[in-house]
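Hey,
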Amino acid sequence: MLNEILNFNREFVARKDYLPYQTTKYPDRKLAILTCMDTRLTHLLPAALGLKNGDVKMIKNAGGVVLAPYGGVVRSLLVAVLELGVEEILVIGHTDCGVCGMRPEVMRQHLLARGVSPETLETIDREGTVDLDAWFTGFAGEEQAVRDSVAMLRAHPLLPKDVAIHGLIIDSNTGELRPLDIQTEK
């Protein structure tokens, strides 16, 4: 697969197909979006929101959630706000999310089936650096996951209070947006 990608890329650059995508590092709409890495959203989400390349800072992870107040998601959002001019954040969950109902015992079985040794899992559990069961636990519902992430961001001590933070759900089939937790203008 990598060779196919590299061959395509050489042709892409040679044809200068990158020209329509050129923009600056600053988001034109002063907007950051936290959403899921779900493949259905790759083109659907920007199309459903009327976004083009350069409009937003897009942060994606499994479930589109904030797991830790000082993890990579919050760091990325702080950089977007403090360095790149973001004034508004959308947390967008989606219907039929694979993280909904994810169970740690199933994830452990997947790891073992893929060659991770039981001893490795035991060592991680014993060291206590990370609670794998908590880390691999999904959420009970997409709406609550969005609400929890929005609440964590709004309460974060380092996130400036003049940044508007909203929660929405997008239908992963139709692209229809449903507002959940909309912050009024400040």
